[in-house]
Design brief:
InterPro entries: AA_transpt_TM. The chain is mostly helical. It is built from 16 helices and 2 strands. It has one domain: Amino acid/polyamine transporter I, CATH 1.20.1740.
Length: about 425
């Protein structure tokens, strides 16, 4: 019997809307889309801004290096969960470090995912209702189509989407139920990417694109510190560890999980590199922290405004559709912190509804009062992102409770911890310096 089958017997996190419903297991393609959807989220919009800071060559290298480390850390996590049959990241932490470890991981997931939820809502606001950056207002899609009205404002748009989509979509208790929305979401991201790349190539051929910076320009202490602020942004864009076990437990054939991870990361790496490169080529030094805000002016090509709308609407739709797949582990971790001794969340509809509504409300408040996505990425990526993606999987490997780690595993784990601590400290100091300045 596979670990996934054991977990399904125990009810670990396979949560059915109807206990009598028969579930034969998720497909490989559905699992790939769900994991890819977890990865390809809001971080994609800040990648062109990281290329503006880093330059093209270090930007591409950092993305590929982060994806490589992510694959390594997920492999560690899955391998060290098998001996004890753990069905979630928090259970692996509990098996290795006890109740304190399990609780710590759940708190980290809540901090990370509530930050991601807020980022998603901010992007949706920016897309449909507009944003203001450096004193300049960038009109949203609805404002561009119908003008400025109360019903095109940020608060109303978020309230409308919350009632009509977010609340219904987070009612699913099994992550595989989101495979169709995940597939559509990834396809919308591809549409967005194809249009951005096409516009960039057109302008390159036309000769209206300025020569990009291949390497960063460090002219003073401030520019040096600014270089490190992009690291948590890219780390945050690759975090998907909190959904790996849930997807594995629902997969029809558990041994396929490593192939699911590899396929998803390869897809996401290509999307990230292409988006960062073409987005930066298109806007150069005028690239904003949220690149979508750049698409409110004429692109200087035929049908420029129509292409602007296609780009913004397709990506806005992508973000709307991936909201529930990030919310799913957020709710489970929040419940694990406060109701660890209660019956399973799926069997308590009242608790399920109250926790869901509370977390949605927190996300809405954060989205309305936090100025832009870069602020959230710097904080979340520099804290929860590094811990969840690299430091904790490496700590599990070094602890090696079941005696299965090789010398190579331990060397890799030490490298990941040292790198994580160094990059974490630098990113936090850099963010603090930027705020003070």
């Amino acid at each position: 019997m596979t670990t996934g089958e054991k977990n399904r017997e125990k009810g670990v996190p396979l949560l059915l809307k109807n206990p009598l419903e028969k579930f034969k297991g998720a497909s490989f393609s559905g699992s790939v889309f769900n994991l890819s959807c977890t990865i390809i989220g809001a971080g994609i919009m800040s990648l062109p801004a990281t290329f503006k800071v880093l330059g093209v060559v270090p930007g591409i290298a950092l993305i590929l290096f982060t994806v490589f480390l992510t694959d390594m850390s997920i492999e560690m996590l899955l391998r060290f969960s098998r001996p004890s049959g753990c069905g979630s990241y928090s259970e692996v932490m509990g098996d290795t470090f006890g109740v304190v470890g399990k609780m710590a991981l759940q708190i980290i997931v809540v901090v990370n995912n509530i930050g991601v939820v807020i980022v998603y809502l901010i992007i949706i606001e920016d897309v449909f209702s507009g944003s203001t950056s450096n004193g300049v207002h960038h009109a949203g899609v609805l404002e561009g189509w119908f003008g400025a009205h109360w019903w095109t404002g940020r608060s109303f748009v978020l309230a409308f989407l919350t009632l009509t989509f977010f609340i219904p979509s987070i009612c699913f208790k099994r992550i595989d139920s989101l495979r169709y929305t995940s597939t559509i979401s990834v396809l919308l991201a591809v549409v967005f990417l194809a249009v951005v790349a096409s516009v960039s190539v057109y302008k390159i051929v036309e000769g209206s694109v300025l020569r990009p910076r291949w390497f960063p320009e460090i002219t003073n202490f401030g520019s040096f510190w600014n270089f490190f602020t992009v690291v948590p942004v890219i780390v945050c864009a690759c975090v998907c560890h909190y959904n790996v076990h849930t997807i594995q437990n629902e997969l029809a054939e558990e041994p396929q999980m490593q192939a699911v991870v590899g396929t998803s990361l390869a897809l996401c790496a290509s999307v990230y590199v292409t988006t960062g490169l073409f987005g930066y080529l298109l806007f150069g030094e005028s690239t904003l922290p949220d690149m979508l805000s750049n698409f409110d002016n004429d692109l200087g090509i035929p049908y420029g405004y129509l292409l602007n709308d296609i780009i913004r609407v397709s990506y806005g739709g992508h973000i709307i559709l991936i909201f529930p797949i990030v919310f799913h582990p957020l709710r489970l971790s929040f419940d694990g912190i406060f109701f660890s001794s209660s019956r399973p969340l799926a069997s308590d509809n009242t608790r399920f509804a109250v926790i869901s509504l509370l977390l949605v409300f927190i996300g809405l408040v954060g989205a309305l009062y936090i100025p832009n996505i870069w602020v959230v990425f710097e904080f979340v990526g520099a804290t929860a992102g590094f811990l969840m993606a690299f430091i904790l999987p490496a700590a599990i490997t070094l602890k090696d409770r079941h005696g299965i780690a090789t010398g190579k595993d331990k060397l890799a784990a030490i490298f990941m911890i040292l790198l994580g601590i160094f990059a974490n400290a630098i990113a936090i100091c850099s963010s603090a310096y930027s705020l003070v300045r």
